[in-house]
Design goal:
single chain, about 190 residues, alpha/beta, Rossmann fold, four-stranded parallel β-sheet, 5 helices, about 30% helix, globular
């Protein structure tokens, strides 16, 4: 379970503003294997909340707990899918997916597992393609596979389909819901698009 207790996040201000309050006294519980969508306009604090949950930043006040333990920095329980796929252009699909394991300090790469996630994402046959030869939706599926390969308990997604056209975005949203039913992870999905 993710517990957010009276979390406030402030940023140092510029010019006349001493500081900017991005989040104020936010409290929320997200149960295990729940799919939660945070919807709101740009600048309302959605990504700030995700960055706090990812451990990229610390709250100014309040506490965040994963399964009762206070979050202090990045957690091995979570993976993040960003707005842009953030793929290494010099890696092919296979190596970009395997990067998730490398980043989690896996001693050796289980290539059968890598192939399993490539197949799960419908990318079989594209293993040796570099990112620039893939569509935007395919690139985002590589990023999702990279996040999922480490079996995260929590999947944090920051507007991952925002740059896609409407049809591809609808397809990816449907695909993600089907995938969630398979992976049994807690998902926090950030979007400004309903």
């Amino acid at each position: 379970m993710i517990t957010i207790e009276n979390v406030t996040k402030e940023f140092s201000g510029q010019g006349k503003a001493a500081y900017t309050v991005a989040l104020r006294n936010i409290s929320l519980e997200i149960r295990d294997q729940e799919f939660v969508v945070a919807v709101g306009p740009s600048g309302c604090g959605k990504t700030t909340l995700l960055n706090l949950l990812a451990g990229f930043e610390a709250p100014t006040a309040g506490k965040i707990r994963f399964d009762g333990k206070e979050l202090k920095g990045q957690s091995s329980l979570s993976s993040v899918v960003f707005q842009q796929p953030a793929l290494y252009p010099w890696y092919n699909v296979r190596d970009n997916v395997a990067l998730g394991l490398r980043l989690k300090n896996s001693r050796s790469i289980d290539w059968k597992r890598v192939q399993y996630f490539i197949d799960m994402m419908g990318l079989q046959g594209f293993e040796k393609y570099p990112p620039y030869q893939l569509s935007g939706g395919m690139q985002q599926r590589v990023a999702i596979a990279r996040a999922l390969i480490v079996s995260p308990k929590i999947l944090l997604m920051d507007e991952p389909f925002g740059a896609l056209d409407a049809q591809t975005r609808n397809d990816m949203q449907r695909f993600l819901l089907e995938l969630w039913d398979t992976i049994k992870a807690t998902v926090l999905f950030i979007t400004h698009d309903v």
